Amino acid sequence: MHVVGPLRVAVVGSGPAGFYAAGQLLGSGFRVEVDVIERLPTPWGLVRLGVAPDHPEIKAVSRVFEKIARASGFRFFGNVEVGRDVSPAELALLYDAVIFAVGAQSDRRLGIPGEELPGSWPATAFVAWYNGHPDFQELDFDLSGERVVVVGNGNVAVDVARMLSLSREELVRTDATEAAIEAIAGAGVREIVMLGRRGPVQAAFTSPELRELGELGEAEVIVDPADLELDPVSEVSLAEDRSTARRNYELLRGYSSRRDGAKRKRLVLRFCTSPVALLGSARVEAVEVVRNRLVADARGELRPVATALRETIPCGLVLRSVGYRGVSIDGIPFDPERGVIANLGGRVLDGGGQTVPGLYCAGWIKRGPSGVIGTNKKDAAETVEALLADADAGLLRSEGGDLDALLGQRGVSVVNYAGWEAIDARERELGALLGRPRVKFARWQELLEAAGRPAGAGLDSPP
Ligand code: FAD
Ligand code: NAP
Q: Which stretches of 79-209 are assigned E, i.e. beta strand?
């Protein structure tokens, strides 16, 4: 290898992709120093602020990341936003290589009339709110109406529908914010309707998540047997399927034949139904939907095509859960079609399609907003392999200098790893008092104050 001294890499974003990349670099056998830069005072990305609060076993993957953070050569720069506190161009000068692992910070749109009405929200915002993301705590979700419509048939749609279906007893066992627990437990919501634009065989949700819906204390899953009647192409793909679609279909059949009516809430799963307009004068009052039939496209993929059958579903809140979307970073080539950084196997591409040595990407901003936590491990490995090959080929250069000094000159209040550990310890202490996994700090001020406080400090000022 041609680099003199340790290879110095900045990883922007501390979600799964950033942490897997950091761990792979530090474990590569090369002499490497990794600085992970994160705009929030807290690490783990969507593991802390996306994964559903009632899934603590999934959030426990953070233990893997904690081990990486303890490795020699690792530093954490929390509360530092790339593009605001330091530019990508400055990072490119300071480090031999920069990996962008910033996730997908926005949402896909439906593109239908009424989408902007008050009461119509992206699920991304609802998820961030109940999980305690400090940018989303001022949002006011009106949960007083009887019915909520969730658009989409992915695992995020299932998450938000399930969160709305939980009882107070189920909610208080989670690390959702106090505000979210109070709002959901005290809500007037009695029916959650989830709309899939295609059929049960094409649903994007996975079977354990679908099964869990049938095990809720306070909500009954309702599926109309007519929605499970399949077109011939879906029948063939179901017959050929040996995993998710088949298991999903069996679960849905079970739900369609079960109805006890004793539970307080109804969770209605509908298929081949698309919203065409959100209706209301000052805020959302209803969703106009159309029944779809499925038609195979040139590649044999079944697409929804609207029929003449329309219907209006009154509701007080619409959560649009049709996917996340990556946001461009100033100065870094972006593919606006896909909402990802233009890249080839994790190497950033310039406008002419040439790779830019020293710039890389990983995770959702590299491949788009799909895949589970583990998917980012393989994805990061491809990027790290490319980076190390470029280092070996002598393609990586830096001008030297230290990020710490630059941020110090700018008066940026960095939360280092010990600062995060102080937040973590205090959240767990507060949680222990209430028999909960943690009580999250969800305001910027609280987070920064807790970061400045040694772990185990007195419990004099709970959030
Ligand atoms: P992220 O996790 O989004 O991390 C990106 C990080 O970059 C964030 O911390 C962000 O603050 C930071 N950042 C952004 N911009 C900047 C900037 N300019 N400067 C500095 N930092 C920046 N997978 C599962 O396996 N199980 C689940 O139960 C599960 N549940 C999910 C629930 C939801 C609601 C969602 C949306 C996803 C879920 N996933 C789940 C998928 C999983 O969370 C993703 O695959 C994974 O988080 C993507 O990792 P990432 O590192 O690319 O992005
Ligand atoms: P997703 O899996 O891509 O699902 C998006 C859903 O939105 C699909 O059902 C899609 O339908 C639908 N959709 C897209 N555009 C639409 C439109 N215009 N009108 C109506 N419906 C539309 O995305 P996600 O749910 O945001 O999840 C992101 C990733 O995180 C996924 O890989 C998911 O598995 C993962 N995740 C995992 C878990 C877990 O493991 N428990 C939890 C949450 C998230 P079509 O299929 O017809 O396009």
A: 97-100, 106-107, 120-122, 147-151, 191-195
